[in-house]
Design goal:
Distance between the termini: 9 Å
Helix content: 40-55%
Number of strands: 9
Mean pLDDT: 97
Bound molecules: phosphoric acid mono(formamide)ester, norvaline
Strand order of the largest sheet: 7-6-5-8-9
């Protein structure tokens, strides 16, 4: 049994095994009508708790569906309705939940909440997003890239916009899957120095380029995300929008990347802000494949965590 806390703390071979299994489980279900059982039920008799302290569409539904497809059951909990949101410690919550359920997925604010939960739970804990990282998303993204273009090793991935939690997990993945990262965005929204330094120390080529057009030259993959994340204060909204507008991913920016460069966005998107509809719905966009692959990648992550 193991926790899935972040890509950089998961062994490389295991990450690759997870993606291989995700792919084979996806293929096994291809052509099956929704709701059809595929007979692969490694989570039979198991209960997975899904805790959300922030809103979610994809994470919530894909984990819920994934557990059920594998024969298990889920319990979707909102942090504010639990005693957790009313003063009970994370450690006590983790100990109690471990007596009832077989695994815990948590989407929370502070990374320390996730780490404390993992430390005190005796069942696997999965990171469903914190203010700092979003590893399940990037596992799905690497899977999506490789489905469309083959190995991501040695490719040039350009992140345009806010150097946020999703960007941080891309830096983790660059280390483990061997691709190059370029960040383009305003200096005040650079990814945390700790993530950049750790990636560089691990041998990743990380470049920071303020000019978005220069950044995307020769890019194999262009990625962006919302300009304001769930944990960000809304008060500086206008200033942020003004700072980030030059980093919008639009057809003009994409025209400077490789002609077959893919475009990704973890969603939810704010169309015409960080990315235009022309790009989101254009021929290079794989945003809905990314969303689908959350399901397959997370099923494989849960199997890895539970050793089934
Ligand atoms: N990409 C992602 O995690 O989406 P949700 O916030 O809808 O879960
Ligand atoms: N960066 C975004 C990702 C949402 C899936 C946020 O944290 O709100």
């Amino acid at each position: 049994m193991a926790d899935f806390l972040d890509i950089n703390v998961t062994p490389e071979n295991d990450l690759r095994r997870i993606l291989d299994q995700a792919k084979s489980m996806k293929i096994a279900r291809q052509g099956l009508p929704k709701g059809t059982k595929d007979g692969d039920t490694p989570l039979d008799g198991m209960m997975v708790a899904l805790i959300f302290e922030k809103p979610s569409t994809r994470t919530r539904i894909s984990f819920d569906v994934g557990v059920r497809q594998m024969g298990g059951q889920t319990m979707v909990l909102s942090g504010s309705e639990m005693q957790l949101g009313h003063g009970e410690t994370i450690a006590d919550t983790a100990r109690v939940m471990s007596r009832y359920v077989d695994a815990i997925m948590i989407r929370t604010f502070e990374e320390t909440t996730l780490l404390e939960m993992a430390e005190h739970a005796s069942v696997p804990v999965i990171n469903g997003l914190t203010n700092r990282t979003h590893p399940c998303q990037i596992m799905a993204d690497v899977m999506t890239y490789e489905e469309h273009r083959g190995s991501i090793k040695g490719k040039k991935v350009v992140w345009s916009g806010d150097g946020n939690n999703v960007c941080a997990s891309f830096l983790h993945a660059a280390e483990k899957f061997g691709f190059d990262m370029v960040f383009t965005g305003p200096e005040t929204l650079d990814p945390e120095v700790a993530f950049v330094d750790a990636a560089i120390d691990a041998g990743v080529s990380v470049e920071i380029e303020r000019d978005p057009i220069a950044a995307v030259q020769n890019a194999d993959l262009v990625v962006t995300d919302t300009w304001i994340s769930m944990h960000d204060s809304q008060t500086a909204r206008e200033r942020r929008h003004n700072q980030l507008r030059p980093y919008q991913v639009n057809e003009h920016l994409m025209s400077h990347a490789k002609p077959d460069a893919l475009f990704m966005h973890c969603l939810p998107a704010h169309r015409e802000e960080e990315a235009t509809s022309a790009v989101m719905d254009g021929p290079n966009s794989v945003v809905f494949d990314e969303a689908e692959n959350r399901l397959h990648a997370q099923k494989a992550i849960m199997r890895w965590c539970l050793g089934v």
